[in-house]
């Protein structure tokens, strides 16, 4: 939708410019210029709408993935779109999807997720166009530590998206030796050289809770 808005705005600006130029010409010239600009606006809007429709159409509504013990798992909505767009290397690292309702469901909060052998795909909700992200490795381990509201590890706390960090807001990124994933209320980093995991909740660094 942003591309559509930008394209339309750009053409409208062009139409205004044509109008200014036409003001110094004859009435017939001005009329021809205005008609040409109007046609350009219509073409640009139609083209942008077509492109937007094509982008939406390319995202599958469902993806079937072989799971454990020969069972097939069906991903839908944002989870399907994310899995379909993943690279072969990412799919290999994710491994097979885990079966059972607790490994793939929609929570009361609206959050949807699917657990895999090597990670999880999660989205804020299952609305079309909602981005989904992959969380895995040491970052996933720290995210899954039970924490209290302040983010401190606690046996009676909550973990994952239900915990104080909330839902993932990015895939894991790499900068040198450092890997990082962001969440609604913080971030987790993993230093592949020192193996240190740092957890930040609401701007404050807390214990990782990992041994």
Short description:
By secondary structure, the protein is α+β, with helices and mostly antiparallel strands. Helices cover 36% and strands 24% of the residues. The protein has helices at 2-22, 27-58, 77-85, 88-94, 137-143; strands spanning 62-66, 72-76, 104-106, 112-115, 119-123, 132-136, 173-175, 178-183, 186-191, 197-201, 204-206.
End-to-end separation in angstroms reads 46 Å
Using the alpha-carbon principal axes, give the shape: globular
Q: Write down the secondary-structure element order.
A: HHEEHHEEEEHEEEEE
Radius of gyration: 24 Å
Q: Can you give a write-up of this model?
A:
The structure is a single chain. Mean pLDDT is 81; it is low at 1-27 and 36-57. The strands form 3 sheets. The protein has a 5-stranded antiparallel β-sheet, with helices on one face. The chain has a 4-stranded antiparallel β-sheet with strand order 3-4-5-6. α1 (2-22) packs antiparallel against α2 (27-58). It contains 5 helices and 11 strands. A hairpin with a 2-residue loop joins β7 (173-175) and β8. The chain has 211 residues and is α+β, with helices and mostly antiparallel strands.
Highlighted features:
single chain; 211 residues; alpha+beta; five-stranded antiparallel sheet
Break the fold down into its secondary structure elements and pairings.
Blueprint: H1 2-22, H2 27-58, E1 62-66, E2 72-76, H3 77-85, H4 88-94, E3 104-106, E4 112-115, E5 119-123, E6 132-136, H5 137-143, E7 173-175, E8 178-183, E9 186-191, E10 197-201, E11 204-206
Antiparallel strand pairs: 1-2, 3-4, 4-5, 5-6, 7-8, 8-9, 9-10, 10-11
